[in-house]
Amino acid sequence: MKNYKFKSTFLMLTLSSMLFFSCSDNQEGDVKEVEPSAEEIEQLAQLKTIEITLNSNDKMQFDKPEITVYEGQTVILTLVHTGTMPITAMGHNFVLLTKGTSLSDFSKEAMKAKDNDYIPTDESNVIAYTKMIGGGEKTSVTFEAPEKGTYDFLCSFPGHYSIMKGKFIVK
Ligand code: ZN
Q: What's the pTM value of the predicted model, to 2 decimals?
């Protein structure tokens, strides 16, 4: 009897964890942020410092296609690698480019800069970047939001930018 109870509990736990994993799997790749209310936007805009968490994973994905900050704010961006793969196989960073910089041209230059964490030695097209991290790691960078406009961000690990990119919007 006891043994039976144990088994059914175990089965339920197994089932619920399977459900949990299948749910989280469905959400990946199609991340929809909840739109903040007008009041929340007002509050965010008043902040002197805005903290952003950008997650990345073993599937070569960022969890945010868009990041919004406000002019004059200090941005503390934390990049988290939620995967388990090593930096040599699935390294990720966050690189914010100056307006009008071509992602493909930048990535070509970045590929040549393996010894410099895949950041081109000429940093004139870079506003801010984090170090490269592997699975289970996180890192932060603090920078001043640039002038109002829309900028591109990407991961500069070779071959990642076509998927790992997004818009950095300064309002
Ligand atoms: Zn990457």
A: 0.79
Distance 66 CA to ligand 1 centre (A): 16
CA 12 to centroid of ligand 1, rounded, Å: 37
Return the C-alpha torsion angle 159, 56, 30, 17, nearest 10. 130
- C-alpha closest to that of 68 among 56, 50, 94: 50
Integer Cα distance of 165 and 159 in angstroms = 11
Quickly count helices (H) and strands (E) in the chain: 4, 8
What gap in Å lies between CA 49 and CA 86, rounded to an integer?
Answer: 32
Distance from residue 34's CA to the centre of ligand 1 (Å)? 25
Instruction: Indicate if the pLDDT at residue 41 is higher than 80.
Output: yes
